[in-house]
């Protein structure tokens, strides 16, 4: 009987479907803390599977997935990890194995969520493990470095949850129990409450920003829904782009409308990056995609920090106290166009590139503060030249927020639908 089929009964006769949580950590040094997590989950009616990712020592009691199984799943062995003589190398072996085993357990229906406990070593491994699991699987990391600048944004799973392991570096105490019990309750509650992504209707993946900057989604979403599709709009500020790419790489989308590829610019020039893989997932999955350069000329940075040195002296826009943007020069925009072309060159499916000559965001109107007519012209010419010969290129005499842009998108969509490039609902 799988984890999803078990049912327990709480006080008062209320039936709950039991969920099984994978608990991962170094049981040789954190046995008490990991055992406490299991106790809290079981006391709430949940089930647990335990995974040991330690290298040198052994747990007090056997775990469901031993360290030997983890190392083997990582293509190695505990003996080889020890023989490396380097704890970083050893934990990378365990991280690869833990990620492989966690995904295997999820696919077999044996786990409904995961919680990982650790300091810097354990957190490093936790990022690998949680990244292996798809969006919709509850993932919780209890870490001594939660929310720390040590954690690179491009390694954070798109839907991970974290809590600081306060006062818990060594041994149980009242303070760290508060963190551990919250995490245990949160992951079990999430596993019970989550509605995994459905496939009732084909899904369109779209990137954008808020309606003050880019507005096409306001019209496109209901139009696409009327054609029988669901539409998911991703906020392209780093983590949103990671979620978008993760789903695109899985082939989750019937088509992609990537109209806010600013994270490509951010990655090139030190802004809020979604990682090197941004704008590649749909192409690798042979998913039909439409591309437009919304906000391509902006590089986002943390608004409450000093302006990064490479961005000093440029026109700026403070979106709010969290986020500010700097404007790229014409030469830098040309680099962005070439990078977009390079990424699209690997696409296995249909690609249409839409280039609006009238501007690429609301602050880029001819009368707006960030408009740069020469920079826009240079970029549009460069993107047209950089687009692979296999792509459709549509040079449009409009602004990206104009009705004419949306009308052209729908014309392409309807044609692709009629031609079978996009599968009909």
Tell me, rounded to a whole number, the average pLDDT.
Answer: 91
| DSSP summary: helix tally | 13
What share of residues are in beta strands? Answer: 15-25%
- Identify the overall geometry: elongated
Structural commentary:
This protein is α/β, with parallel strands linked by helices and 425 residues long. Helices cover 37% and strands 18% of the residues. The strands form 4 sheets. A 6-stranded parallel β-sheet has the order 9-8-10-11-15-16, with helices on both faces. The N terminus is likely disordered.
Comma- or semicolon-separated keywords:
single chain; 425 residues; alpha/beta; six-stranded parallel beta sheet; five-stranded parallel beta sheet; 13 helices; 16 strands; elongated; disordered N terminus
Summarize the entry for a quick read.
By secondary structure, this protein is of the alpha/beta class. The chain has helices at 31-43, 67-73, 78-83, 87-107, 120-131, 174-193, 216-226, 239-249, 262-269, 281-284, 330-344, 373-386, 403-419; strands at residues 7-9, 15-17, 20-25, 47-52, 113-118, 139-143, 161-164, 203-208, 230-235, 255-258, 289-291, 298-302, 316-318, 323-327, 351-356, 392-396. The chain has 13 helices and 16 strands.
